[in-house]
Amino acid sequence: MTPALGIRAPSRAQAAPDRLAGDEESRLRALAADIGIAFLPLDATPRADCPHDDRSFVAAAATGLLPLRGDDGAPVLVIAPRGPAIGRLIEFARRDPAAAARVRITTTDRFNRFLLRAGPALVEAATGDLAARRPMQSARWGLRRRCGFVLAAAIVPVAAAMVAAPAAATMATGVLLSSVFGAWLALRLAGAIIGGRAPPPPRPLPDSALPVYTIIAALYREAASVAGLLAAIGRLDYPPEKLDVVVAVEADDGDTRAALDTAKPKFPITVLPVPPQGPRTKPKALNVALPFARGTYTVIYDAEDRPDPGQLRVALQAFLAGPANLACVQARLCVDNTEDGWLSGYFTAEYAGQFDVFMPGLATMGLPLPLGGSSNHFHTKTLREAGAWDPFNVTEDADLGMRLARLGYRTGMIDSTTYEEAPARLKPWLRQRSRWFKGWMQTWLVHTRKPATLLRQLGPAGFAGFHLVVGGNVLAALMHPLFAAALIASTLFGASGVDHLAITLYAATAALGYLTSVAIGWVGLSRRGLRASAWVLALTPLHWLLLSLAAWRALYQLFAAPFAWEKTEHGLARASHRAARVAQALAGLDRDLGAAKRDGRLPTINGATGTSADRRPPLAASA
Known about the structure:
By secondary structure, the protein is an alpha/beta fold. The chain has helices at residues 18-35, 54-59, 84-95, 97-100, 108-115, 119-133, 143-164, 166-194, 226-234, 254-262, 282-289, 311-321, 342-364, 380-385, 396-406, 426-447, 451-493, 497-527, 540-560, 577-599, 619-622; strands at 38-39, 65-69, 75-79, 103-105, 213-219, 243-250, 269-274, 297-301, 306-307, 326-335, 376-379, 410-420, 604-605, 608-609. Strands 7-6-5-8-11-10-12-9 form an 8-stranded mixed β-sheet, sandwiched between helices. It has a 4-stranded mixed β-sheet with strand order 1-4-3-2, covered by helices on one side. The chain has a two-stranded antiparallel ribbon with strand order 13-14.
C-alpha cells in the first residue's frame, strides 16, 4: 500500500529490519505459542481497527503498544516486545492468563510498517509540531522580515551618522564593534582557561541494568558511508539487544536504501522512509525518526561518525551522576582526515579548540552550549517535551542547545570522542560553512524575538553568552573583511587623526582575534597529541577571510533560500589518523609477540607456542 504524501511503508524486500525479521519473527512466534498469546502479523489489519487519532497513532511508535479492536469487537493490545520487555511479558502471561488472552504479539518491523500508514500525520508532526507548540521559537515564520528589520536598524543610523559626523561615527562604530569582539574573545579565553570539570568516578552497571539506548542516523546520498557507520555502531560496547537503531532515509534515495539492504549488522535496525515534502532538512528527518525511538536515551550520529566504543556507557554515567535537569551531553568531535589538505587540517585545529578546550569551559560555567551536529546524547522524554528539532533551522543542533537552556535544562560535555570527516576542498567546505552561518543567523533571530523573555529565561550570564557565542561569531565573520579593507587602505594611503585611532583599534582587535584563535587551536591540538599539525594555524588570516566569504554568502541565502540545506559529501577522505593508530598498534603488538617468541617467553599449550594473547585484538579494541 502507498500512503499519501509520498510515505511508503518498507516492503519485506526493501526494509533493513527484514534482514533480521525472519529470526525475530521465528522467536516471537515460538514465544507466543509457548505462553499462550496469539501472534498478529498486522498485514491485513485495517487502520480503522485502531481507535487512536493519527497523532496518537504515531505516538504509539515509542511505546511499542497499540490498542486495536479484535475479531470479536472487544479491545486487544498489540505489543512489539524487545529486550527486557520480553521477560516482563512472559511473567505477565504466566501470572494472569485471562488478561494475557487480550494481548497480541508482533515484530517491531511489522508494528512500524503498520504505523507508517499514518503517513500524513507523521509528516505534519515532523514539520509543524514545534511551530504549533512554540511559534516564537521556530524559524518557520517571518525570518526574512525580521532580518531586514535588524539590518535596517543597524545600517540606517550608522549611515546617517557617517553623513552627519563621519569622523566621530567612524570612531564610535570602531569602539562599539571592537568592544563586542573583545568580549567574544574574552569569553573564548575564559572557557579555555576554566576548562572542564573532572569526570565523575565510574559507576559501572551490569548489562542487565542498562536501559535501552536509541541511535538515530539521518542519511541522504550516503551509500558509501553505510557500511562504515553500521560497523562503528556494531563496535559500541553496549548489549545489542539494548540497542534501538533507527535510520531515516529520504524516500527517493534508492542507493542508500540499497546499501542498507545489503548490509548485515548484528543488531536490528529500523529503516524509515522520509517523505520528500519540504523542508528537506536533516532536522525534519530526525523528527520523522524520533516517534520510533524506544530508548530511555537517544544519541544522534551522522553517516561519517566513528564514536569511541565506550561512548554510550560514558554518556549514561554522566546522566546518572549529573543533576536532575541535565538533558543532554555532547561528545567531543575530532576530525580524522587531517592530512587531506590544509582546510581539513585547520578544521582539525578548530574542532580541537572548540570541543576539547572552549565548550568544556562553557559547560563548567553553566552557559548555554551550541551543540555540535552529532554525538548529542539526550533524555528521550525531555527531548520530546522540548519540541525536538526545528525542521526549518539549518543548524538544528545549536538552536536546540539554546532552547534547552531557555527551558531550564543543562547541557554537559563528556570525555569521549567521535571521529568525523571534514571537507578538504574549498567548494564543499564553503557550502557547509555557509549553511552553518545561515543557521546561526536563524538561531540568533529566532531567540531574540523577545529579548526580555530571553533575558529572564537565561539570566544575565546566559543572555550575554548566547549573544557572544552565536551573534558574535556571525558578526565577527561579517565585519572582518571591512576591518581588513580599512587596514589595507590605511597602509596604502595613510591615515591621520581620528581615522588613525580607529585603524589602530581595528588592527589591535584583528591581531587579538588571530592570536586567540591560534592559542586555543594550539592547546586543543596539544591535548589531542597533534602538535605536528599546528603549522596550519599560521594560515589563520586566510581562514578568517574564507569564513567571511561563507558568512556573506549565508546572509544572501537567508533571504534567497532560508531553508535550503546544502549537503556535505562524505566518504571522500584519503587519510585517517585513527586507522594509522590502529595499524601502529597492531604492528607494535606483532613486534612484541615476535620478540617474546624468539626469547622463549611465551608458554606452550599442547606443544604449540603461544597463548590466547597471541591473537590480534579486534579492530574495535585497538580503535
